[in-house]
Amino acid sequence: MPSSAHLGSRLDGSRLDLLLRLVESITASPDLDHVLDRVVQSAVSLADDSHSSLWILQGSRLVKRAEAGRHLSAIPRRTELDIGEGVIGRAALQQQTLVVPDVQADVRHVCREYYRAEKLVASAATPLVSHGRLVGVLVLATRSADALGDGEIEMLTAFAGHAAIAIESGVARAQAQRSAESFRDLVDTLDAIVIEADAETFQITFVNHRAEAILGYPRHAWLTDPNFLVNHMHPDDRDRAVAHRMAATAKGRDHVMEYRMLAADGRVLWVHDLVRVLPAEAGGRRQLRSVIVDITARKQAELELQEQRQLLTHLTRVATLGELSGALAHELNQPLTSILSNAQAALRLLERGTIDLAEFRDILRDIADEDRRAGEVIRRLRALLRRGETPRQPLDVNDVASDVLRLTHSELIGHGVAVSVQLAPGLPKVRGDRVALQQVLLNLVVNACDAMRQDQPLGRELTVATTQDGDGAVRVAIVDRGAGIAAEGIERVFEPFFTTKEHGLGLGLAICRSIVAAHGGRLGAANNADRGATFWFTLPPAP
Question: What is the pTM (predicted TM-score) of this model?
Answer without folding.
Answer: 0.43
